[in-house]
Amino acid sequence: MDIFKHNFHIPVLGLGYTLDTPIKVAPYGISSVISLVDDMLMEQMREFYCQKFDMPFKAISDKVEDFRAKRITSYLNMVDEIVSEKVQELKNSAIEKGSELEKYFNMLPDLASIKEKFNLAEKSKQLKEELSTWVHEHLPIGSIDVNIMTKLDKVNYKDGEQLPIEFNDAHAALRGFANSSLSSSLVLSAGMSPRLYSYLEKFEDFYPDNNGQIKKNIILKVSDFRSALVQGKMLAAKGLWVSEYRIESGVNCGGHAFPTNGVLFGPILEEFRTNRDKLYDTCIDVYESTLAKRELNLPKEKPSFKITAQGGVGSNEEHNFLLDYYKLDGVGWGTPFMLVPEAVSIDTDTLELLKNAKEKELYFSGQSPLGVPFNSVKWASMSEQRIANAKAGKHGMPCTKQFLKYNTEYTEKPICTASKQYQSKKLAELEAMNLPAQEHEAAYNTIIEKECLCVGLGISLLESKNIPVGETDKVTVCPGPNLAYFSKEASLRDMVDHIYGRKNLLDDRKRPHMFIKELGMYLDIFKKRFESFVSNPEDAKEKKQLTQFQKNIANGVDYYIQLFKEKKDEVIKDIEAMLSNYPAIKKEL
User: Fold this and answer.
1) Exposed end of the chain (fewer CB within 10 Å): N or C?
2) Distance between CA atoms of 237 and 239, rounded to whole angstroms?
């Protein structure tokens, strides 16, 4: 019964902001995603919730063998147990006004149909009993999904000896999820990892069981059709089915941004729309032949997949447009939920900062030690502290959690570019170069901009629960630019009503269409790269990439003009006005 299913999900929001979101929203049928980066944070949260729900707790020391995977498994099992108990309470609640079950119904997308059934149930004892039976047997529950950034696969050591690859960070996180009681999905993001994909083959929960059911599904977060086709086929050749392709706008989500070379979101979605059957036919043939060749169980029913998208959506009109025109199966709503404490865990000061943030405060930064553009907001307390420390000559931070160690510029073993160890070496090297003042300042700012995301992205969660935070109480927060148009704290019901068009939470200020907002950000990227190229026009590789970037932007603009020419004339006017501010995009390289 589709009227009982939501068509949106809540993606990962930083390391901590959605760590316990499933406990809050899954009982109401809303799916969300937990980051599996920080096992230390999960251990703290497991202790918190075990105390809250009077559950037994035994700490898992980092001296225990395979402690990272065991911590993750224990945390996920606890979340699964708490959600199951909450769901049972919800099912047992009376079908009457003010009950949790009514709250569940009132948030569903097809409210009119629900109300019709609900009112009938109130008037007829028999219908009420039938609805109650259906609720106990079939009520959809939100999926407790998990995310692994495939690039965060740090090698680990014990007593100075390198541990086998299965103890790498991403591998251990995968094992932690695979060994858990959850029946949900693993979201793989940040690019393709053949060795991690091969490790998936070791866990039977990703394959059909004797009843043809797959307990744990695979979701691929992708930025283009080719990537989806290559990865989907690669996994199918291992007997692993991708249940969902989650397309993400390159620059319009919070946290790390993975911009394309100027290929815009609309044309990417169009390619999925027109080639959906090609993706399915290619993967299903390989998948079924692999299962047969390996004599593995076949799925109970012929498998299907979903195609969803996320990144910058902010209105019901955009939500429905994505579903209807591009035939998507769901839409991810991330950044707006940062203003919904009922859904995420956020401290009051950070919440206030986000409520007041407008376009000029939300920006692309170089804060990530991974060297990937990172969405940020001005005046976040961790950034303020980092700048103050640098002015006092205290560059870099202690690397306590070590999840983002990848740089081997100065050391044999990777270190983090936000650490004291790295920045002291890098700054000493900079001083020895004796660059002109302007160049020196630019290089200096690039070095010290790196921030300790491992710690900063978890502090707000701890503070929201009054859990001691340790070495610092400074917060890193990473909202997407879409936050600029939401300025009020909202309840879960309010935000869901906004998504489904029953309420409007947007400010009165003009908000550009999500596609146009992304176009503007790509134009900014092109402008910066073009200006840098002008000072070094002999860089043939960059010239070739910029030429293709320019061509992709032009093709994307043409696509949007054709797409909106009949129904959205104001979007075309916005495009023309925006392009007039970027003369570099029309120059010959």
Assistant:
1) N
2) 5
Closest CA to 481 of 246, 313, 262: 313
532-536 contacts, C-beta under 8 A, 24 or more apart: 533/589
What integer pLDDT is reported at residue 132 of this predicted model?
82
Partner residues linked to 187 by β-bridges:
147, 219
Q: Which residues of the chain have pLDDT under 70?
A: 1, 95-96, 120-122
The residue assigned the tokens 């320019």 is 550
Residue 194 CA to chain centroid, in angstroms?
21
Residue 175 φ/ψ, nearest 5 degrees: -65, -40
How crowded is residue 438: how many other Cβ atoms within 10 Å of its Cβ? 8
Tally of CB atoms within 10 A around 406: 16
Contacts of 160 (CB under 8 A, 6+ apart): none
CA distance 257 to 373: 5
Tokens of 321: 């447009």
Q: What does the pLDDT look like over 169-183, one tens digit per residue?
A: 999 999 999 999 999
pLDDT, residue 402, reads 94
Q: What was the pLDDT predicted at 113?
A: 78
Q: Hey, is 217 helix, strand or coil?
A: strand
Q: How far is CA 230 from the centre of its chain?
A: 21
pLDDT value of residue 120: 66
Tokens of 8: 């949106």
CA dihedral 533, 537, 539, 542 (to 10 degrees): 40
- pLDDT at site 1: 46
